[in-house]
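#struct-help
A.M.: can someone run this one for me? Single chain, 154 residues.
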Amino acid sequence: VVPQSKKQNQPPNAWLTFCPLPVKEDGIVMEDPLALIIEDSYGLAVLFEHALQAAAYRTEKIGDGQEASNRLREIVPDIVLLDLHLPSLSGGEILRQIRDDGRLANTKVFLASANGTYASHLAPEADIVLNKPISILQLRDLARRFNRHNTTYH
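D.P.: on it. C-alpha cells below:
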C-alpha cells in the first residue's frame, strides 16, 4: 500500500497499490480473488477499491493505460474494472488485449464510462457495463456475484 504522504507528492496517474489479504480455510491458505482497477481518477479508484474489498477481493489500482497493459502481462485478475478514457492507452485497447490473451479467458471485465455511446459499442466484449456515476453498493453486489469464493450467489 502506498503511504498517504507519498500519494500526495505523485502525479495523479503515477500510482499503483497492492492490498493482499490471504484467507485460511480448512487449514489451506487461500487468497481472495484479485480485482484490478484501471481508473485514472484517483478518487473514483479509491471508491471502487472500497466496494471491491467489501466484496472480498484483493485489489490493485492503476491509473495509466500503458501501465495497466504491462501489468496484465504479469497477472491474471479475476475482475478488471476498466475505465474507457485513460492516459497512454485507451480502455478499448486494453479490453482487446484482455480478450486476445488466453491466460485472461476467465477474467471478467466491468467497463466503467460516462460515455454511453463508446461503452455500448464495446459492450459485446465486456461482462458488465457500468455507466458513471456508479453506485458503490451496486458495484459491491455485482462483484460479490462473480466472487469464486462466495457460495451465496452460486
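A.M.: thanks! Residues 3 and 110 are 28 Å apart (CA to CA).
D.P.: also worth noting: The longest helix spans residues 42-54.
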